[in-house]
Amino acid sequence: MPTPVVIEGSRQLSYELHLTNFTSEPLSPVSVEVLDEKDRVLASFSGTALTSRLAQGGGAAGATIAPGMRGLIYLELALPTDAPPQALSHRIKYRTADSGPFVVEGGIVSINQAAPLVLGAPLRGGPWAAIHSPDWPRGHRRVLYTVDGRARIPGRFAIDWVKLDDSGRTANGDADVVGNAYGYGAEVLAVADAVVAATRDDIPESTTVAAHPKHAIGDATGNYVALDLGDGRYAFYEHLKPGSLRVKPGQRVKRGNIIAALGFTGDSTGPHLHFHVADANSPLGAEGVPFVFERFEVLGSYRDIGELGSKPWLPRAPSQTSRRDDEMPASNVIVRFE
C-alpha cells in the first residue's frame, strides 16, 4: 500500500503498476491514466513519458510486452490537496500489431493514510548532496532484487549521501584517494531510538577508487548497520568504514548516538552513506518505505548530477524556503543538518 511523502511542500506518491500480458500477441501500452474515486484524472502518461517508465522482466526497457510476460511501470505523482484520494484506479490503453487500440480499467490500489516515519539526521552538518532520482534506469528506485522467490525494491526511497565543499568538490586533492573524500570517516548517527537489528563488519576497503573490486550481490551493501525502528520498519546504513561500527545486534541506541563511520565498502562508486528504510530486516529482501527528516536546510541543487564534484551547485532560489520540516529531500538537493 503506497504511502504519500512530502517533498518540497507537495504530497508525492511513488508506486509500481504491474501489467501482465495473458493474450497470444504482443501488447504495446499507449497511455496510462491514474484516477481517484471520483474518476478525476490525477496523472496521465504517454509517449516517451510512458515508455521511459516501462521495464520488462530483468529490468530491460521496452515499449512492448510479449505474450506471457510482465511489464512494470514506475509511477510518481503529486496528490491534490483539496480532496486527497483514498484509493486510485488506472485506465490503460493498449494496441496490438493487427488491431486498433483498446482500453483496460482496473489496478485499484488503496493509499495508506498514515504519516511516514519522522527521523532525525543520519549525519551532521554539511553540505551533503542527497543523491537520488526516480527516473534513473539503474537508480535505487528502479532496481528489483529477487529474494526467496519474490521481487522487491528495497531502495525505493533510498538516498546516497555525499559530502561536498562550498565549491561542489567531493575531495580535498586527488579524488581517487578514498581518504581524501570530505565525507570519509564522518560520524553516522542513529536516526531514532531503536534496537540494533543486524550488523556486518567483515568487508575490506580499497585505498583508491580505481582499485575498488567488483562485489557479489550478497556483499553489495558493504559493511552495514540495520536499526529496528519498531512497527516493522528498519533503517539501513550501508558502505560503512571497516572497524568503525560502535554497536552490535540487540544493543539499544538513542537518537543521535554515533553508530559507525562513513566508508567505501561494497558496491560503491565512491565514499558515501547509503540510507534507506524498509519493511523487514533484510538489506535486499524487503520493500523500501518512505520516511521524512524532522528538519534540514536546503542550500541548493544539481540539475545535472554529472557536475557533482566538478562544479558548484545551483543556489536555492530566494523564493524557496530553506528550512524544511518533516519532509524528504528532493532529488539531488544540497542540504545541511543541524
TrEMBL record:
<dbReference type="InterPro" id="IPR011055">
    <property type="entry name" value="Dup_hybrid_motif"/>
</dbReference>
<keyword id="KW-0378">Hydrolase</keyword>
<dbReference type="Pfam" id="PF01551">
    <property type="entry name" value="Peptidase_M23"/>
</dbReference>
<feature type="domain" description="M23ase beta-sheet core">
    <location>
        <begin position="183"/>
        <end position="282"/>
    </location>
</feature>
<dbReference type="GO" id="GO:0016787">
    <property type="term" value="F:hydrolase activity"/>
</dbReference>
<protein>
    <submittedName>
        <fullName>Murein DD-endopeptidase MepM/ murein hydrolase activator NlpD</fullName>
    </submittedName>
</protein>
<dbReference type="InterPro" id="IPR016047">
    <property type="entry name" value="M23ase_b-sheet_dom"/>
</dbReference>
<feature type="region of interest" description="Disordered">
    <location>
        <begin position="313"/>
        <end position="338"/>
    </location>
</feature>
<dbReference type="InterPro" id="IPR050570">
    <property type="entry name" value="Cell_wall_metabolism_enzyme"/>
</dbReference>
